[in-house]
Design brief:
The chain has about 280 residues and is an alpha+beta fold. About 50% of the residues lie in helices and about 15% in strands.
Length: about 280
């Protein structure tokens, strides 16, 4: 004989699940709407610049110097549009990567960092950030270390963090570093940019988050998905991402990943405590 209390508990559980699914459906619809609204708005701006300045190039009334300025504007808008398209593709690919997260390889951690460093020697010129110094801090005794993880995901995480650093840094430097611990390693990306307000730190990993505002106006263009994507990838790697920041002083991101790729996520208790004075001097 079936226990009536058991049947009632199952019925209640089914009703609870139905309500949860309804809530998730609304949440997904909301995210889709926000995504499309952000995409349409952000793409329109560089497209208008490309079309507008391209048409001005045909006008014989402008001097060569003026036309060169138009070309610079077109180049900058094209780069921005490319970044937006890459962001859209990244959102679409994230679902695929959740299914292919078992792909793993032996990785040379410094080699990965050197490759990214070389990529940005050109990229920072395209971003008009050539005056910003970019450097790698190395430990010669640890240059031959290796570990197992997903290189594509890790590359994308670091790329997103470095893109973010360049976006919010107008002078000074961006430094890349690796710290090695007993059962995990940690990539560190630090910058001397505008920093993040303490009350905004909890929102930086949200989709379409744009926490850098002044008088209600967004200070920087973009879809606001770079950091949320980085966190999603770090989660898939079984790692942890942390941040320290001071307004007007800069930001430091720490990406801790296990030496061996695993589906079991790391716990904060497994991660060494950070020393905030390592990158931000006391009393300054």
């Amino acid at each position: 004989m079936i226990n009536e209390n058991y049947v009632k508990s199952l019925e209640k559980r089914i009703l609870d699940l139905e309500e949860e699914l309804k809530f998730k459906d609304k949440e997904v619809d909301g995210l889709k709407g926000a995504f499309l609204a952000n995409v349409s708005h952000e793409i329109r701006t560089p497209m208008n610049a490309i079309v507008g300045f391209s048409s001005l190039l045909k006008d014989p009334g402008f001097s060569t110097d003026e036309k060169n300025e138009f070309i610079d504007e077109i180049t900058q808008a094209s780069n921005h549009l490319t970044e937006l398209i890459e962001d859209v593709i990244e959102v679409a690919n994230l679902q695929f990567n959740k299914k292919s997260q078992s792909i793993k390889e032996v990785i040379d951690p410094y080699q990965l960092l050197f490759e990214i460093f070389e990529e940005y020697q050109y990229k920072k010129q395209a971003l008009y950030k050539g005056e910003i110094e970019m450097r790698i801090k190395t430990n010669k005794d640890l240059l031959d270390k290796e570990f197992i993880s997903n290189p594509r995901m890790l590359h994308k995480v670091l790329e997103n963090l470095i893109d973010n650093a360049f976006k919010f840094t107008t002078e000074g430097s961006i430094e890349l570093n690796i710290e090695f611990y007993d059962d995990y390693l940690e990539y560190v990306v630090s910058d001397t940019g505008i920093g993040i307000a303490a009350d905004k730190l909890s929102a930086i990993y949200s989709n379409f988050s744009k926490v850098w505002k002044k008088n209600g106006e967004v200070l920087y263009e973009g879809l606001g998905i770079g950091l949320s994507s980085a966190k999603n990838f770090v989660d898939l790697l079984g790692g942890i991402i942390q941040v320290q920041s001071q307004e007007g002083r800069g930001t430091v991101f720490y990406v801790s990943v296990p030496y061996v790729f695993t589906d079991k996520p790391m716990e904060l208790t497994d991660v060494q405590p950070k020393n905030p004075n390592q990158y931000f001097s006391v009393g300054a």
